[in-house]
Design a protein that fits this description.
Blueprint: H1 30-37, E1 43-44, E2 61-62, H2 65-68, E3 88-96, H3 102-120, E4 142-147, H4 149-154, E5 185-191, H5 194-208, E6 212-221, H6 254-258, E7 273-282, H7 284-287, H8 292-299, H9 336-339, E8 351-352, E9 355-361, E10 367-377, H10 384-392, E11 401-411, H11 423-426
Helix pairs in contact: 3-5
EC number: 1.11.1.-
Catalytic activity: heme b + 2 H(+) = protoporphyrin IX + Fe(2+)
GO molecular function, one term: metal ion binding
Length: 428
């Protein structure tokens, strides 16, 4: 999980309230409302109605920084890759409908890009907006679009398919549901508000129209911004601090490891990245039978603060050679944190940006819960694959997880003003 600082909730000064009784019929749009609120965000009435949409009594509650956050759509790298972890996420894959090809795909990406631009700015969708997010700010909404291996055959663009998009090899820990894996098109949605995220999910599905049909869809979550006293690395559903060693944009080699260079191959992938998506079920009943000491030995880090078992704080360098009084390695040879270190995998590195998930309780009482693992890299054959192969050979965590779905997607660079995502591929 990405080691990212999460913005804290803060109360902002409220602008003057609109006259009581002012409604949407008075011509106040969501975009105008956001513009009026400016840096202070929206103002909610005591009953939850936004000023401009419903009456606002005295003492209205100002929108906090959670709702006020806005991510630009027109950027060099698509949004949703380097932003801090978001509280709510949806992953959805589509297959093009029978008879749909390159022309229909281009029209769909044009619709999706316009919808993403509007919703990320806090505006309603162009057509048939459901009003689900009517009272909300953008809440750091991001939409990210990618292409699967099968997309290129369906659109006659096989010659433009990247070599890096070759199917992932089989891994011994895989128990994959093929119906919930891969897909022609992939969309990642993230936001710091559940209704804003669902609003975007519904808009994307409606925009697909007759051009594409849903192949699979998954829902995830993370810690909410402001839930801790100060910014902290997130925890996964095993209770472990997860993401301490994630690469950071400030690292000198970050772009080289995560993004396709401007003059890379193929050209339409310039400034893009590759996303590996895995639904990893955590066998929590088995995990929770372990003592804290046993759990820490599996991971190689203290559960309380994420520090390596060799000592220090969370970000201290792990001493892989340190032994205890009996000569045993302090960080076990099969500890997860040891095996996944880039310097133990030929420098292989990826940006992990996952969501946790919980899809109910099985008939035997076991929770269907775990991690929607998403990692980003310039080349998955050099990033994800060597690390997963090494995990297959002896990771102490393997008995407590099950890889149930998998996908690999080529995510092109961001769209320039007046363009849509993937335009260089579909119109090149």
């Amino acid at each position: 999980m990405a080691d990212q600082s999460i913005p804290q909730t803060r109360a902002l000064t409220a602008p003057p309230a609109e006259p009581v009784g002012r409604t949407a019929g008075d011509g106040i749009t969501r975009r105008r409302l956001l513009g009026t609120a400016g840096a202070t965000g929206l103002v909610l009435g005591a009953t939850g109605g936004a000023v401009g949409y419903a009456s606002a009594p005295a003492g209205a509650i100002p929108l906090t920084s959670v709702g006020d956050g806005r991510v630009p759509f027109h950027v060099k790298h698509q949004p949703g890759i380097t932003q801090p972890l978001q509280a709510r996420g949806h992953l959805i894959a589509f297959d093009l409908s029978p008879g749909a090809g390159r022309k229909e795909a281009a029209a769909l990406l044009r619709r999706w890009s316009d919808t993403a631009r509007r919703l990320m700015a806090g505006e309603p969708a162009a057509q048939g907006d459901t009003d689900v997010a009517r009272d909300s700010g953008p809440s750091s909404l991001t939409l990210t679009f990618g292409f699967g291996h099968s997309f290129f055959g369906r659109t006659g663009l096989e010659k433009q398919r990247p070599v890096a998009l070759d199917p992932l090899p089989d891994f011994s820990s895989d128990r994959l549901d093929r119906a919930r894996s891969n897909g022609d098109l992939w969309v990642q949605i993230g936001a710091d508000d559940a209704l804003v995220a669902f609003h975007a999910l519904r808009a994307v599905q409606k925009d697909a129209g007759s051009a594409a049909r849903v192949r699979w869809q998954m829902n995830g979550f993370n810690r909410s911004p402001g839930a801790t006293a100060h910014p902290m690395t997130a925890r996964n559903l095993m209770g472990q601090v997860d993401g301490t060693r994630n690469p950071k944009p400030a690292d000198s080699d970050f772009d080289r490891r995560i993004f396709v260079p401007e003059k890379g191959e193929p050209g339409w992938m310039a400034h893009g990245s590759y996303a590996v998506v895995r639904r990893i079920r955590m066998l929590l009943d088995d995990w929770e039978k372990l003592s804290v000491t046993e759990q820490e030995s599996v991971i190689g880090r203290r559960k309380s603060d994420g520090a390596p078992l060799s000592g220090g704080g969370e970000t201290s360098e792990m001493d892989l050679e340190k032994t205890d009084a009996r000569g045993n390695l302090v960080v076990p040879i099969n500890a997860h944190a040891r095996i996944t270190r880039p310097d133990q995998n030929g420098g292989a590195e990826m940006l992990r940006r996952p969501f946790s998930y919980h899809d109910g309780i099985d008939a035997d009482g076991a929770p269907d819960a775990g991690l929607l693992f998403i990692c980003w890299q310039a080349d998955p054959l050099r990033g994800f694959v060597p690390v997963q192969r090494k995990l297959d050979r002896g990771d102490a965590l393997t008995p407590f997880v099950r890889h149930e779905t998998s996908g690999l997607f080529a995510v092109p660079g961001g769209a320039a003003e007046g363009e849509y995502v993937g335009q260089a591929l579909l119109e090149g």
